[in-house]
Amino acid sequence: MKTKLMILLAMLLLFLAITGCSSVSDGQNKDVAENSTSPEIADQTPIPAEESNSNEADSNSESNDNASENNPKEEATEKPELVLGSLKKIVSDGCSCSAENPADRSKNSDELNLLFITELGGDPPAYLNVNGKDTKFELVKRGNRSNAVNSKTPYEDVYEADGMTAKIKYVYRKSACPQSEECEASEYGVTITLIKDKQIVKKNVDGICGC
Q: Which residue in 151, 132, 50 sits closest to 86, CA to CA?
């Protein structure tokens, strides 16, 4: 009888020992599982909107600066000054009207420095030296001339060439050779007005018309 009790007691102790070990093992496995299924939370702190916009603005500003450095604006080129000079070659085979500025004459020289010349009769062209080049101007408007030789009434002829307009205004002064009956020339006060775009050059010079 005692032997049976001892056997039962031994079996009970063995059962309790087995059960306790299983419980401890389950607890450890649970802790391991919880630890393995609990990932670390990443730092996902959002960037403030103001800071983000500021960074974008700085980036755009740098891009614009680089673009302006690589593509500088071209400076506007200035138009050449309009210059009325003396003719290099005198073109006239007969009676004509011409004009010169006595101040432009070379010292110790009687050579005429003509600024303008055109033949008389019909609708002939006129020649002026513009920016160092002798230029042919076509007559587009003929002024009203008085029948009186010594009329003080001014008249104006208008010429055009290469986008330029030349206005030649005549005012009678006197006969160029009053002592000669064969002379048919008169002296005039002449105003030459040269226009191109917004540039205007005007000169008051001495003129003579005749043969």
A: 132
